Amino acid sequence: MQLIDHERAVLGAILLDNATIEDVADRVAPDDFSITTHRLIFGAMMDRYERGQSIDQLGLYRDLKPLKLKSEGLDIVSISGLMEACPAHTTASHYAEHVREAARFRRLKHEARVLHNACVSGDASEVESTLKTLSGVWETGDDGKTVTLTQAAMEYVKFLERRERGEGGSWDTGIALFDEVCNQGLGGGLMQGQMLICAGRAGAGKTTTALYLVREMMKHNPGLKACFFSLELAASNLGGKVIRSEMDPGVTGNFIGRARESAGMIAETYGDRINIVDHTGMSPLSIFSRARQQAKAGVKVFVIDHLHRVAYPGMQDLRHQIGDFCKRITDFAKDHEALFIVCAQLNRESERLNRDPVMSDLAESGQVEQHADIILAVYPASDMVKGKREPKDGLITFSLLKNRHGPAVSRDFLVSYKHQRFSETEG
């Protein structure tokens, strides 16, 4: 049997006998499957199992139907056909071992390519990091560590003590939505070791929002440094956005003079603490290489604008590559005690269905949302009037679609794109 047959046999065994998932779940994870549809099906199976729901063809099809993957061969017929691929559900553990071992070698091959590129470029820090990852994958298949609940509880107390002394852990923005609601269960604020996804349609204000957050963090946290990977806009365009945000909206005339005054104020306050890399076509490898250099210089906040402008090695299995990139971002954030703000695209489903955006509206949502700590959707504010959405003039909605350590809420902000400013209407 080929690897694909092994994967189909594992999935088919679970459909034949739902109890099989208890043995299989100890051996494989969704990312261990080599085929995108297989990863999605196994992920949906785990979700239904954890919710105590039956794992059946119709239920899986309903869960996966919103992803619109019929062109990739994911329909009710293909899901039902998995049962025919399994000789007997009692063999599931055997096939799961083959799937896990194949995934292990895929990861080794991937890290070996990263190591080769790092050697060619002479990046010693990347070589060292990749060697550690290779060793972990080879020896255990996992580079994580195990701690006791007692150790975890004491670490949290130390975290609170550090925050009380003002020694870091989280950074204020002066914006209630981010300072009080985000990570509410941990005391609030945007925190190190996390990834925030800022999602929106083209032109919705993703870049402006990310720049707005970074600017406010610099103002409220003296000494904090940031690096903005601008994969779409030139550095001068970002400079123009910040200059406009610092201009007094009540003053008109002599735009160049006011721009020069704002540029001077930026230079005197936080301007030298925000670095901009505006290269187009940067690969994940080159982004991490530059990020490591910036981290050594004390940078703690990174922005990637945006996720789909990254030059991935190839278009084949793009979903998996984006997922792998996001996973490596979260690993980097934890290793370097940094925060990543990553801009991403929303599809048109919310507009088509006349509703607010949800997590599944994220392009490559299944992979992105899994690794994000916070997902912020940015879209025009509106009210339902006679079954139709009517826009609220001058307002934009910031919606926390995911808030790992706090509630998922939405708040309207006053927006002035002319002055690149947002103002909370509540909180």
What does this entry show, briefly?
This protein is of the alpha/beta class.
From the coordinates shown, what is the CATH architecture of the largest domain? 3-Layer(aba) Sandwich
How would you describe the shape?
A: globular
Strand content: 15-25%
Question: Helix/strand/pairing class, anyone?
Answer: alpha/beta
Helix and strand pattern: HHHHHHHHEHEEHEHHEHEHEHHEEEE
What is the total tally of β strands? 11
Please write the CATH class name of the largest domain. Alpha Beta
List low-confidence stretches.
none
Radius of gyration: 23 Å
The proportion of residues forming helix, as a percent range, comes to 40-55%
Mean pLDDT, all residues = 84
Task: Examine the coordinates and then state which fold CATH places here, giving the name of the CATH topology of the largest domain.
Answer: Rossmann fold
Q: Biggest β-sheet: count, sense, barrel?
A: 9 strands, mixed
What's the total helix number?
16
- Termini distance? 59 Å
Domain count:
2
Assigned CATH superfamily of the largest domain: P-loop containing nucleotide triphosphate hydrolases
Adjacency order of strands in the biggest sheet:
5-4-6-7-3-8-9-10-11
